[in-house]
Amino acid sequence: MAALGYFNAVSARKLMVIASNQIDNLIRSRDVTRVRVDVGTLPALALKRSETDLERARASLRTVQNAYQSALSSLAMTL
To answer: Full-prediction pTM beyond 0.85?
Structure first.
């Protein structure tokens, strides 16, 4: 049982790293999109979509962080 809890915690931690990297990439993408909107090569809607994608990724990170904390709590209870 403890092994399963450990692997759940490790898995959740790796998902947190992935989600964090995704946020970093989306921030860079949003910044590029903002510049392209400012110079007129993209419509303003593209920036709104980019910002929406970023907020979704941030919400996903919070969900993964909660899952990680839950996995740690479950692991602690089994030990």
So the answer is: yes
